[in-house]
Amino acid sequence: MPSWFDIHELPMSAGSPQDESGVLKAVENVHAMIDKEVANGIHPDNIFVCGFSQGGALTLASVLLYPKKLGGGAVFSGWVPFGSSVTERISPEARKTPILWSHGMADRTVLFEAGQAGPPFLQSISVTCEFKAYPDLGHSLSKEELLHLESWIKSRLNASPEKDS
Description:
carboxylic ester hydrolase activity; palmitoyl-(protein) hydrolase activity; PLipase/COase/thioEstase; LYPA1-2/EST-like; Rossmann fold; globular; 6 helices
């Protein structure tokens, strides 16, 4: 199923095959959007990348492979879309970008186990991750998740060391 990158099977599990080259091409597109915002005067600490499902997987890859620390990345019902070879490309600055990861335990499209594998992976590469599980949530976003995202972003905007005028 092509979109940002190919998905070879559904439901997605922790062991599903990955389209690393497709992910890396999609990351270039996201990085171009981030670079445009930075060129327009937005400080990277005030840039947040958020995505659902495949967009969540792309969010994770995009913030981890961006050369600078960003304000944060929010992954909703996503997964780790690459293998260990890509982790060597993650800069020390990018490892400072905090991640919010939310996943519904009743998700039958991107299985909960795929989302649950994210935080230990992030911990292994020294990336801060807040993980929230939603017991009755399937493959969708809930109002509760969005309200938590709003407060999570607001707390980081207020904590940004450098503010744009």
